[in-house]
Amino acid sequence: MPMQLDDKQRGTLLGVTAYLIWGFAALYWVQTEPVHAGDLLAHRAVWSLPFVMLCLLFAGRGRLVAALALLRQPRTVALLGCAAFFGALNWGIFLWAVTHERATEASLGYFLLPLVNVVIGLTLFRESIDTAQKVGIAFALAAVLLQLVYFGGLPLVALSLALSFGLYGAIRKGVKVESMEGLLLETLMMAPFGIVWMIYRDGAGLGQYGMTVDVFLLGAGAFTAIPLMTYVAASRLLPLTALGLVFYIGPTAQLFVAVVVFGEPFSTVQLLSFALVWIGLALVSLDALRRARALRNIARRAKADPGA
């Protein structure tokens, strides 16, 4: 008899799956060499559209119709257009990084992301931050300053990845649209640019480097959409605190691939930078767990003594 999983177990399994796919994504994209990063971005945009449309059709024709009906809402289209821009920017930076021996710095960017989200929440949404979050941000700034002083420049790949994905998430937060429907509109707006680019680039690598490369290029849409759909399913089953802890699997896997598989250098200064970010993340995560546990205890006591 197969073992039955509860919502928390299924959510954890789905979340781990999504972040493992993202974490080991570099192993997929290196199979497309020597296709340029800009060409890969075009393929992701173009082939994601039919894949997402098929998924929505499979989920029910009504969902596809409802998604296309959103095109009659100018504000929604404008916001999703901005989200598509930052999403494409994030894709492009990541693809450039993994194809130019900068995967280690890319993983640092995604480790910085939770702390960047705190800053975005503070500046754009006027959210308050507690002491643990302030200390976490201070550690992240120390890591950036360390690289600035030692290397004589900012870790632009890491900062750009964290900021672009953070802004993408902030925009999507303000759009009351289901994730899959929103993804369809985003890809619908990106695909024309991808098609024009592929025409301009004479196929953008398709049919030029052998069947193996072609298969990976054509699979770019599914490889882009599947972890997003898995993540959405996990987010509906898990509390945000639990999903936030699962998040760290992604950049950890990215760092493993960069250093162990690709053999990228990992200097003492980089190790210290990562350590500072990890300390900040640990403080923020532990504080989030403490708060979640306190809320559960309050809810449990209220349920046990409703007249209190």
What does this structure look like?
The chain is globular. It has 14 helices and no strands. Helix 1 (7-23) packs antiparallel against helix 11 and helix 5 packs across helix 9 (179-200). The chain has helices at 7-23, 25-29, 37-59, 61-69, 74-98, 103-124, 131-151, 156-173, 179-200, 211-218, 220-237, 240-247, 249-261, 268-304. With 308 residues, the protein is mainly alpha-helical. It starts with 6 loop residues before the first helix and ends with a helix.
Low-confidence stretches: none
The counted number of beta strands is 0
Beta-strand residue percentage:
under 5%
Residue share in helices?
A: over 70%
- Whole-number radius of gyration? 21 Å
Average pLDDT metric:
86
Task: Name the structural class.
Answer: mainly alpha
Order of helices and strands: HHHHHHHHHHHHHH
Gross geometry: globular
Largest sheet: none
| Tally of individual domains | 1
